[in-house]
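Fold it.
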Amino acid sequence: MISHNSLSNTRNLVLCAMCAAITCILAPLSIPLAGGVPVSLATFAVMLSGVLLGGPLGALSQLIYVLLAAVGLPVLAGWTGGLGIVLGMTGGYIIGYIPCAWLTGLIYKKYGETAKKPVKILFMILGMTAGNIVLYVIGTAWFMFITEMTLEASLAACVIPFIPGNIIKMAAVIIIGLPVENAIRRTAYANEPAM
């Protein structure tokens, strides 16, 4: 007989691999906003992974993604990949996906997952906001170290133009994440072995 823990572990690994795959598919894509600022779909996938998987598994899914990018799979913006890009001037943002997913998932799963819908959405927003702040801090510090640009110039180049796009992506995570989370939960209960 297959144990409940074995099924749960298998399910978690499958969900983790699926979220890594979703990031691999979406990260190379971007949508231009007014003013020509491209909105990468990577952070949408990162935040969605945190919401659906929680902190540890969300972070693991993004670690898998970063490792795939580092070995050269074309899963980064513009269908590129390689260690040189991961360690390049914007590499801190790529590496920052890991703590972003972790913090997003940690806050949401701890405080919002079992709450009523308005509170659930509030903690989803708080988790994604905290995750994005950490992502921006790591990425901007890395960018400043590599380029030797000032904080103001780095924020103007790498953070401020992308905030409207991140707000749109956060709204999309809420719209898509809630029904997907419910479907995952229903599937988990339907597949639990009879005792």
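The CA atoms of residues 5 and 73 lie 33 Å apart.
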